[in-house]
Amino acid sequence: MRTTAVRRTVLTASAAALALVVTACGGSDQDGGDTKAKDGGSDKPAAKALTAGELEKLVLTTGDLEDHEVRKPGKDDVFEPGAVSAEQAECEPVARVLSAQPAGEPAASAQRLVTQESEAAGKGMPSMEELAEMTEEEAEEAALASLDITKTMTSLWSYDADGAERTLDTLREAGKKCAGGFAMTADGEKQQVTKVTEEKLAVGEDAVAWTVGTELDGTPAETKVVVFRQGTTLAGFSSFNIAAVGRGEAFEQPTAVIEAQEAKLG
Predict the structure, then answer these.
(1) DSSP strands (E only) in 105-166
(2) What start and end residues bound the annotated signal peptide (predicted)?
């Protein structure tokens, strides 16, 4: 019975986490976007997007973070263009950044998958002999502790002219309009976004930050989403914690990852 309960707990947490991997955003102040459009065309040359090569030099590496693993995502970690959509068109920007896809049309991009394991997760799953010596509650907690892993898909997207500002404005507005939730499809699989809750985060020149609640096959989960702007570049972060999904607990924004990327962008 204990072994069955542990397997069920692990499978539930893993399935929810996988759903987030498979799935693993605003509005301007006082018509600021229009003002920029009117004033920006005077004597200043239009800002240029960074190239893919330049973004590759600025995106995070393992040396930028202690106790984190940083790698290029594989094809199973990311979606093909057009694979993510929302039932309500105004919510699609949220669905896209939740799924680590860019809002708008960047000129260039770079991505890394950043993983942080707790000490318990680093030790791995307890053996069947160890689990057999535990109560059912202890075994379930030990199994979840071994899954205490936070994964953050980190993206850099660069835009020409004021494209980054306008895209961030669109994301902010979409987050407000879609705060009550919406249906979305990722790679042909439907799921429900149950809520989009705004968070306050001071990073970059401007930023949006949310906790996004999702539900897939009756299993609720939360993803932390942040997009901030530095010049013509947007930095996006979509983060989940497997153990938090299994426990039904909230987890914190991956501030170490966000701050390290902000520092590299200058």
Answers:
(1) 108-117, 149-158
(2) 1-24
Q: CA–CA distance from 162 to each of 36, 39, 93, 159, 167 (Å)?
A: 8, 12, 17, 7, 9
Ramachandran class of 58: left when φ > 0, alpha when ψ lies in -120 to 50, beta otherwise: alpha
Instruction: For residue 41, give the amino acid letter.
Output: G
DSSP-derived letter for residue 112 is E
Backbone phi, then psi, for 73, in 5-degree steps? -70, 145
The beta strand positions in 118-251, using DSSP E, are 149-158, 182-186, 189-198, 206-216, 219-230, 233-241
Cα 29 off chain centre by: 25
The reported pLDDT for the residue numbered 7 is: 36
> How many whole angstroms separate alpha carbon 194 and alpha carbon 101?
20
pLDDT for 3 equals: 39
Written as six digits, the tokens of 183 are 């249906």
The pLDDT assigned to 122 comes to 65
List residues bridging with 176 in a β-sheet: none
> What pLDDT, on the 0 to 100 scale, is given for residue 235?
98
CB contact at 8 A, 178 and 212? no
Chunked into runs of 10 residues, the chain (266 residues) has average pLDDT values of 38 40 37 38 73 97 94 90 93 96 94 86 71 74 75 97 96 97 93 95 96 87 96 97 78 93 96
Amino acid letter, residue 245: V
- Listed residue (256, 195, 191, 184) closest to 18, CA to CA: 191
Q: What share of the chain is helix, strand, coil (3-state, %, to 5)?
A: 40, 25, 35
What's the start-to-end Cα distance of the chain, in Å?
A: 54
Phi, psi of 55 (to 5 degrees): -65, -35
